[in-house]
Write a sequence for this structure.
């Protein structure tokens, strides 16, 4: 089975143990945020390698790397063949800065679009402009699977439904 399918079957499995899924997602979100923080430090440098190499580079499991590639794909300059990739498939993380920022806004992920590093990439005005453009477009980027009672991925310690999940 393709890696992406394996990840989706596991991470989006309604029949799985709920506690384990919660743990998986809150752990994943923390690592995801770390990777974005790292990537945004050098936004114009293309990070490229096999799926396995990138997982090693960021110190995460292969399945998290697949989840990350799934999440970032729409924000890339050139999408990766995520549906068919295997661990030795070469992928690129070269992202379109404006698209990535907007997709983070569209997903309601302020723990991502408010990452410090964005301030070195876009002025405050530009960030506002992109934010409004995204909101006006009405495009809702489907958030990842989080249950209402899960801890919010922003790390506030509140339940998702009382924090960022309010918008959904
Ligand atoms: Zn939150």
């Amino acid at each position: 089975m393709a890696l992406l399918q394996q990840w989706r079957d596991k991470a989006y499995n309604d029949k799985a143990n709920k506690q384990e899924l919660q743990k998986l997602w809150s752990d994943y979100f923390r690592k995801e945020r770390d990777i974005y923080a790292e990537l945004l430090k050098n936004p114009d440098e293309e990070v490229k390698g096999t799926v396995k190499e990138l997982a090693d580079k960021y110190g995460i499991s292969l399945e998290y790397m697949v989840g990350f590639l799934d999440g970032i794909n729409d924000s890339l300059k050139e999408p990766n063949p995520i549906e068919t990739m295997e661990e030795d498939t070469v992928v690129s993380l070269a992202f379109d800065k404006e698209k990535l920022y907007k997709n983070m806004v569209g997903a309601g992920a302020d723990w991502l679009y408010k990452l410090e590093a964005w301030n070195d990439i876009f002025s405050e005005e530009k960030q506002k402009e992109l934010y409004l453009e995204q909101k006006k477009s009405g495009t809702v980027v489907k958030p990842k699977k989080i249950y209402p009672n899960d801890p919010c991925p922003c790390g506030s310690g509140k339940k998702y439904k009382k924090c960022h999940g309010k918008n959904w």
The chain has a mean pLDDT of 91. Residues 3-167 form one domain. The pocket of zinc ion is lined by residues 152, 154, 156, 163-164 (CB under 6 Å). Helices lie at 3-11, 18-41, 51-58, 62-72, 97-106, 110-113, 118-121, 124-137.
